[in-house]
What we know:
Rossmann fold; eight-stranded mixed beta sheet; 8 strands
Amino acid sequence: MKKIGFIGCGKMASAIISGAKNKYEIIASEINEEFANNAQKRLEIKVFSNNIDLVKNSDIVFIATKPNQVENVLKEIKDNTNEDKLVVSIAAGVTTEKIENILTNNRIIRIMPNTPALVKLGMFGICKGSKATDKDLEFIEEFLSNIGKCISVTESQMDIVTAISGSGPAFFYQVIEDIARAGEKLGLEYEKSLTLATQTALGSAQMIFNREETPVQTLIDNVATKGGCTFVGIEEMKNQNSSKLFYDVIDKTTQKANALGK
């Protein structure tokens, strides 16, 4: 069995580790000894207080530090990696090319995760570097399937993934909050309105996953009977140009993600 090491035990790394540790041999590192001891107790895995020890004992190394720490970590571990080690980064905005410029001999895979991984409903965009193989990609997709869904994209598409699924939870929180507050203003208690909006969002998302070949528009039409109350609501969304609003949200977020990566 391949031994998988995580440099960093933050929230996202901890979510991935917790979801996969029963099926895979996982170790981790935190450079602060106190943090390492706390993470070891919390995650119930071996946690080193030295990144080099972690790398030496791993077949696959996840870079799970903050983006501004990645370059220093890569330079630190460079002499202890070889072409047999797969390096996987979950650091936002750090391209495979940037990683390959330091780890010139390694196979690199980049992942864009999102916070619903904390409740095992994550969404992961994955792209491979110039030396990574399809087999590498398949292994990481299988590994991450314990806590969510994966799609394979190109490096040039990762900023769009960042906008839709990386930043997306906040956008959906905002929509759900806006709907709940509208219900409150119209006379329904906020918590009841929030429960209605949240469960409806959850169920609607599952309906889309279950639709098979049915277009999403058909699902809309099935609820929005012409002349009915839902139809009036959909017409108001069109009048307010909601499609332009969400395009602008994703476009601006994509542009920001691209700028951060440079």
